[in-house]
Amino acid sequence: MSEFTLKGSLALVTGGGSGIGLAIAQAFVNAGARVVIAGRREAVLQAAVAQLGENAFYKVCDLSVLEGLGAFVENIEQEFGAVDILVNNAGINLKKPALEVTDAEFQNILQVNLQAVFALSREVANRMAPRGKGNILLISSMASQYGIPKVVAYTAAKSGVEGITKALAVEWSPLGIRINCIAPGFIETEMSAKALNNDPERKNRVLSRTPMQHLGKPEDVGLAAVFLSSRAAKYITGVVLPVDGGNAIGF
Description:
Residues 9-185 form the Ketoreductase domain. Belongs to the short-chain dehydrogenases/reductases (SDR) family. Keywords: Oxidoreductase. By secondary structure, the chain is α/β, with parallel strands linked by helices. The chain is 45% helix and 15% strand. It has a single domain (2-249), classed as NAD(P)-binding Rossmann-like Domain (Rossmann fold). The protein has helices at residues 19-30, 42-52, 69-80, 103-131, 152-172, 190-197, 200-208, 218-229, and strands at residues 10-14, 34-39, 56-60, 85-88, 134-139, 177-184, 240-243.
């Protein structure tokens, strides 16, 4: 099963200090990779690295500051070596009726969840391309699969993420860089569990249209990320993989 190992690889995971990002980082460490997690909250990153072990490191970075991303990637490669895997997991949300969303709020969500994803991917790919290899993962959402009220900006951004997954795969796969996307369904993170438990009607609606009839675990997304980043997926590029217990096709 050596095709599934990530031994010898260096992965950069944004938003890797908690939730799904931390689960992806943990799965990567378990698969043999060294992992650099990035985010804005140093205390959260420090706690995550302590949990992940000796093959995990962190860097503080505000991904919304686009002009600093080139130097950020250069610094990581100088300190830790070539980035083999990039996971664009970091993101923010805004829950608000669409009629009340301001232009500034909409733009802020797009900048962090879409524009920064492209900018960081471009900076990493510019270094992967001369090496002729690399894997870039984007993280989408069920919000891109169907309409969910009060998250119009987030939906727009995640729909864009799925679009650029395909566009970048067409351009960069000939350079040896595979681009894929994971669309998590309803995953039982601390934040989502609290929200659903406080809204039993919504929780019942979620579970009633999920054929597997339970929420996913963060590790389910982490294991999917390992697969897509490994040699086991060497002929897969440009896909959007739902990890949702069948929610997207549920009735």
